[in-house]
């Protein structure tokens, strides 16, 4: 019996100054791009991606300054959407992607859909109009009560004040104000059910 190749592989795109690191599952099918919120990283998507199987090509990206992606002085949302479009195009899957955004990643998913061909956009845990100004306030907003203990490791925020400054423009340029809700991480509360919802969009 031959050993199976790893389901998750890690890749990097760009130069050292604008490096984006991402994990990929599957080599064929429609691309599904998973975007995390501020202070999290691509690992928050691992349980969902594992449930999607080989029906699509799943991409979980570390936003700049998160995980292993290079930090940038400023993270213009339109410029980052453009970088994301080049990354997706480089996969040579020739299909419009499904964009999924959690927290601030929802803003990037919407910006991508405004400028590039997109199959569908799914957003949740959308942020309030103003970013948190301290780690205590940020942690207080996370509702982990419904997240099983085994998945809470994927919902650990890593506060960094410099990140807050570099992403501040995401909030000041918003077209409309949202009240924001407590992040409840539905993708970690029931990864299999969340993956089933994504499959319906593919």
From TrEMBL:
Residues 32-179 form the AB hydrolase-1 domain. The keyword Cytoplasm does not apply. This is Alpha/beta fold hydrolase. Pfam families: Abhydrolase_6. Keywords: Hydrolase. GO terms for molecular function: hydrolase activity. The keyword Hydrolase applies. SUPFAM superfamilies: alpha/beta-Hydrolases. It comes from Actinoplanes sichuanensis.
